[in-house]
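Note to self: keep these together.
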Amino acid sequence: MPTAKLYHILDETPTTKRFFFEAIDLEKLNFIPGQFISFEFPIHEKQSKRVRHFSIASYPNNNNLFEVVIVKKEGGAGTEWLWKQELGVEIPFTGPSGIMVMDENKVKNHIFICTGTGIGPFRSMLWDIHNNNLPTGDLIMVFGTRDKQSMLYVDDMLKLEESLPQMKYLPILSREEINGKQGYVHKVYTEVMNDYFKQMEEGKYNDLDCVFYICGWKDMVKEARANLMAMGFDKKQIKQEIYE
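Structure:
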């Protein structure tokens, strides 16, 4: 099993850290934006209870470096162990794995819906689009969290929005107002889709298919999926990753 060496840590919020790793014992770490890594932490005698999955938040590169963003889970054995580690520790891993990736044909409207660290895989996708100048339809990033101090990758999202004319960054907070709004992601993507429906009625829509990517806590993912299907979208248009 290959290992990943921890070489840098950044505090992103009071409860969230960005961990930077180098995959060693591998000729090349091949991953598609949206996939995840499965670490094996020495926290239990049973192998199945040592494994933790984390989405890759960085974009593909040629030097086997990757980043994951992790929130410290209250009472979580995995994050309790990881928070105590020092630079240089090597952690066994498998992967990359996961099917929440973009299709080969990216000329579609991509709507990303996430909460908390669920933004990680979408950051990877967006920077890959930016770095490789990939043609797409609209890129709508709907990000939700509690308050401003809990927001992740704000600078990245603003830079991407400025560089990608087809992108809109739509953060929403449940405990504070931002951009004149307060609430949950469901309110935001519903407004986005209602605007699309209005464009269709007025003959102003870009006539591209929509693909939805949902990542975050289980209840949010389930509710968003159900809402989108109630709007008439097919389950084949919805890709998801649930964080336990």
